[in-house]
């Protein structure tokens, strides 16, 4: 089954059920969404898009972006969602590598997308009421891609492009397990601020919602004020990263509340960054709900592990694998040893490979078919996975391994710290631990106090050599801290 068939089935079974609403004012039932998909598919065909062609979507979250995902599927094409806030050179690099037949821009919801559209001479698509613009490009004959639903580029600006090929089965698997473990029903309203150009928003929100017949409240950019209002407005399920929750808790306190003043929210999960026990306790007290913690990656179609607690607890693991997913640890990998190893994954969410990059594909798969994640983890006595960090982010200080999440968890527990990020900085031939702390202007912590706080919680070789306090840490659209941008703050 292709993903547009899933949408069509929902539209047939529940045509008047709410599907989504967004900041552009689109309020669509499943029938509305499906009709828009059919109209967009016809426009793509008129623009020359054929089976196996790629459709580049330079986007921020909005209803028409969701429709474009399913429209590309309907014509047999492959969608490439790409964050509109990337530079012109980044867009050009993806175009050169993927040779799409057309580039589409969510120009009505994003000034950056509008600027890219202007640069490429794009014109409005009528099926999306002018909210999308498109520019035909010179594609080339493609290799067979009939099983691929989307290609997600994970590369930075200095690396060779790596486009993760996710099949229709991958997307349905990822959305299906997310639906099942979260027990999503048609009565649920999901908050859709996680970028749909990334796998978390695409699979765990969009696909999970459509597979379950739920609805999505879509936001193009994270704002604690907007999230606060959405929760007051009836959102029932929130998938997030810890940085989003930290900012929401800080904003809510500014509104005069110590806990969240809503009753409709029934489920909250966190991923993409570690938790510590004290912070988790604060978050669960704030929401009045258990905070589920998960682990996933683009190459695994988001979901790999997730906790499924019935009540509040002190478990800071990422739980056990989703149904249909297997994990193992390679303790001989870099950074491994003892009970720590590189996490290996197999199962229904594992990608087909990297588009036009067989070398990278071969490197990421073991001879017996496991996929290397590049993440370090350990399993506790109950079989729950604990993430120790990226193998490439491992800090080797004075010959000792320092795992950044452990240092971050210690500092995050300080009452004046909103969030923290730790990286290694080379100095005189050794890698030093450097911590970047975000704090409120009216509640600025003293560096000496932070050092004393860390000393009570960390062994000497794990303590930061430098602590930099800032008002705002550089972050992605999800709120996830961009560690590559941290050295510029020194």
From TrEMBL:
The lineage of its organism: Bacteria, Pseudomonadati, Pseudomonadota, Alphaproteobacteria, Rhodobacterales. Keywords: Ligase. It is an enzyme of class 6 (ligase). This is Long-chain-fatty-acid--CoA ligase. Belongs to the ATP-dependent AMP-binding enzyme family. Its EC number is 6.2.1.3. It comes from Pelagimonas varians. SUPFAM superfamilies: Acetyl-CoA synthetase-like. Coiled coil: none annotated. It comes from the Bacteria. Gene3D superfamilies: 3.30.300.30, N-terminal domain of ligase-like (3.40.50.12780). Residues 406-480 form the AMP-binding enzyme C-terminal domain. The gene is lcfB_5. InterPro entries: AMP-bd_C (IPR025110), AMP-bd_C_sf (IPR045851), AMP-dep_synth/lig_dom (IPR000873), ANL_N_sf (IPR042099). GO terms for molecular function: long-chain fatty acid-CoA ligase activity; medium-chain fatty acid-CoA ligase activity. Residues 8-355 form the AMP-dependent synthetase/ligase domain.
């Amino acid at each position: 089954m292709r993903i547009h068939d899933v949408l069509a089935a929902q539209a047939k079974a529940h045509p008047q059920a709410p599907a989504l609403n967004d900041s552009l004012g689109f309020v669509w039932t499943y029938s509305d969404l499906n009709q828009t998909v059919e109209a967009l598919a016809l426009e793509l065909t008129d623009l020359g898009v054929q089976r196996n062609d790629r459709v580049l979507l330079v986007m921020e979250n909005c209803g028409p972006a969701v429709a474009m995902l399913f429209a590309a599927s309907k014509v047999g094409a492959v969608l490439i969602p790409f964050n509109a806030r990337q530079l012109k050179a980044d867009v050009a690099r993806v175009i050169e590598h993927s040779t799409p037949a057309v580039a589409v821009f969510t120009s009505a919801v994003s000034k950056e997308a509008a600027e890219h559209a202007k640069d490429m001479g794009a014109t409005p698509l009528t099926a999306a009421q002018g909210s999308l613009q498109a520019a035909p490009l010179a594609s080339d004959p493609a290799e067979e891609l009939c099983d691929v639903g989307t290609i997600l580029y994970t590369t930075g600006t200095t690396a060779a492009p790596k486009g993760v090929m996710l099949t229709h089965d991958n997307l349905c698997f990822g959305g299906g397990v997310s639906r099942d473990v979260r027990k999503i029903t048609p009565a649920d309203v999901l908050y859709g601020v996680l970028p749909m150009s990334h796998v978390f928003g695409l699979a765990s929100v969009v696909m999970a919602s459509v597979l379950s017949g739920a609805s999505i409240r879509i936001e193009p950019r994270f704002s604690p004020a907007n999230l606060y209002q959405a929760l007051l407005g009836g959102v029932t399920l929130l998938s997030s990263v810890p940085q989003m929750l930290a900012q929401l808790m800080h904003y809510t306190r500014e509104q005069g509340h110590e806990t969240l003043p809503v009753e409709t929210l029934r489920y909250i999960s966190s991923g993409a960054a570690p938790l510590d026990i004290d912070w988790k306790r604060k978050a669960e007290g704030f929401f009045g709900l258990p905070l589920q913690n998960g682990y996933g990656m683009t190459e695994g179609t988001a979901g790999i592990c997730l906790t499924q607690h019935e009540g509040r607890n002190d478990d800071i693991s990422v739980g056990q694998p989703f149904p249909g997913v297997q994990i193992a640890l390679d303790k001989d990998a870099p950074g491994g040893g003892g009970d720590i190893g590189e996490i290996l994954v197999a199962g229904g969410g594992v990608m087909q490979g990297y588009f036009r990059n067989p070398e990278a594909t071969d490197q990421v798969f073991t001879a017996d078919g496991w996929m290397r994640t590049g993440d370090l983890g350990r399993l506790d006595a109950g079989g729950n996975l604990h993430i120790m960090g990226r193998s490439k982010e491992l800090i080797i200080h004075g010959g000792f391994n320092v795992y950044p999440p452990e240092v971050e968890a210690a500092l995050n527990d300080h009452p004046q710290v909103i969030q923290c990020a730790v990286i290694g900085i080379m100095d005189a031939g050794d890698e030093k631990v450097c911590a970047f702390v975000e704090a409120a202007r009216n509640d600025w912590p003293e560096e000496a106090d932070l050092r004393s706080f860390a000393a009570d919680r960390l062994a000497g070789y794990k303590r930061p050599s430098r602590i930099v306090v800032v008002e705002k840490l550089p972050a992605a659209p999800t709120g996830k801290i961009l560690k590559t941008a941290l050295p510029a703050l020194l």
